[in-house]
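Researcher: Please translate sequence to structure tokens.
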Amino acid sequence: MAKRFHVYILATRPSGPLYIGVTSDLQKRIWQHKTKAVAGFTKKYGVQDLVYFEEYANALTAIAREKRLKKWNRAWKIQLLEQKNPKWRDLYPDICK
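Model: Translation complete:
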């Protein structure tokens, strides 16, 4: 099976902080955020709900997308994630199946 890469957005609520990241192991990385295993923004602000993700075949494309999303204004980011997840549901249980 070919390695896949993911760009993801974490949040706690619509008015709260957003975190955008990239990983080659989405399930493991979200677990790390949820358990506060790694110090940083998500641990400090309690941002741990996976509300959006995209899959890519290679790391360079995923990293480029992550960088573009980080430059977007907040309204554009919210519009993007609400297209796929209008209720801001935590998608982590779905990727653990």
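Researcher: Any highlights?
Model: The first strand starts at residue 5 and ends at 11.
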